[in-house]
Amino acid sequence: MVSQNSLDWIVDLDGAHDPKYGEPHKVPIVAATKENFKEYGNLVTDFDAEQVEIVPWPVAGKRPLCSGTGTFGGVTEGDFLHEWVGDKCKAMSMAMGWGMDSDFFVCRLGKGQDLGNKTSVLVREANYHPDGSQCFYPKDKLPFVALFALPGDDVKLDDFIAFYSDGSFGFHIRPNIWHQPMISASDKAIFKNKQGAVHACVNLDTVDEFGKFLSVPLTLE
């Protein structure tokens, strides 16, 4: 289980270039628009105006949840910090209080690239939050890419899409949307972030389940 102080679900990126995994699965990339993103959530130009959706606590049996209960976990807010360290990108969540004192690396550069030539990254982890929506907004207005897939525990590699933002807008995703932290080609990036404070998190490791990394483009083709 994931907690605010535990990162025991972190995946290992050291072997990302190992030939035993074969060629990574190439994720398609699109320029995000209001129309092509509507199933995932909405584009964000005013972070403060966005209201996080909190999902009522689930019940295990046939008895219904008491009216007005199950939604008191609240919302947490804080910057998401990203910094490239060598050929890996480290993420730190001020909202959830993790990553500052540990190596939470979200992606690694594709083979043959360096910090001055970032064209794609290798990813093997995604997760979703059943307790609420999540809103990301670029404080520095720099271009970035967001990796998403629609809800479903039977998610496949082909379900993932990279949405490109020129930095003028962010993303507000609905509960249960598969995602990763935002991916920036800039050496450092800061994203405003707010989400459900319960932070229920369901994780996918594409290497464990499918034997492959995802290759996510950083620029529009």
Walk me through the structure.
With 221 residues, the chain is mainly β. It has a single domain (38-55, 81-217), classed as Jelly Rolls (Sandwich). It is 2% helix and 35% strand. The chain contains one helix and 16 strands. Strands 1-16-7-6-5-4-14-9-12-3 form a ten-stranded mixed sheet, with no helix packed on it. The protein has a four-stranded mixed sheet with strand order 2-11-10-13, with no helix packed on it. Strand 4 and strand 5 form a beta hairpin. The radius of gyration is 17 Å and the shape is globular. The N and C termini lie far apart (38 Å). Mean pLDDT is 90; it is low at 1-7.
Whole-number total of structural domains: 1
Helix content: under 10%
Spatial order of the strands in the main sheet? 1-16-7-6-5-4-14-9-12-3
What separation lies between the terminal Cα atoms? 38 Å
CATH architecture verdict: Sandwich
Biggest β-sheet: count, sense, barrel?
A: 10 strands, mixed
Radius of gyration: 17 Å
Shape: globular
Strand content: 35-45%
Query: What is the overall number of helices?
Result: 1
Low-confidence stretches: 1-7
Total number of beta strands: 16
Compact summary:
The chain has 1 helix and 16 strands. It is mainly beta and 221 residues long. It has a single domain, classed as Jelly Rolls, CATH 2.60.120.
Please tag this protein with its features.
Jelly Rolls; disordered N terminus; 4-stranded mixed sheet; globular; 221 residues; 1 helix; 10-stranded mixed sheet; mainly beta
